[in-house]
Amino acid sequence: MPSHASVRSTRTGTPETLWFTRCPVPTATGIAADRRWLADEFAADGITVRSLQDAAPDVDRRTHYTHALPGLFREGGNVPALWARARGERTRLIGLTWIEERQAILVRPDSPVRGAEALRGLRLAVPRHSLTIDFWRAMALRGFEGALASARLTLDDARLADVPADGHPGQWAAEL
Known about the structure:
Blueprint: E1 17-22, H1 28-34, H2 37-43, E2 48-51, H3 63-66, E3 72-75, H4 78-86, E4 123-128, H5 135-149, E5 159-164
Parallel strand pairs: 1-2, 1-3, 4-5
């Protein structure tokens, strides 16, 4: 297992390296890093700014989800942050952004399902990954919960079916 071998601090406890990580979508962090704004800002204090995605093999990339790397800040969804905090990591929320998004429940073209109310009693496929934190599963469950609620239903009104989602080489490459 990779370690935190490349994480060092000065005598004052200030990290020599400030790590950032983000999801593979356009973010303010990505733009600031690309334009070297982060590197330039912290250079005066002797702090190097590095992307977790570009780190050497001895840095544990799972910290994108676990938040266990000292000096790491992460721009991404809330599931890993909530999970890490619940497990005792000293992670802190320092800002929020809102992204307009749409979610859809897909059915076959020949399906009689035309609205959320028709989901009552049906099997809903929920992905199951062997990730440290299965945020895809959490997002799918939240999506189903919202769709069902729009028809005054709950998750108990449908049958959830776990669908193994591992085994696709490279599927997470863009994430890390």
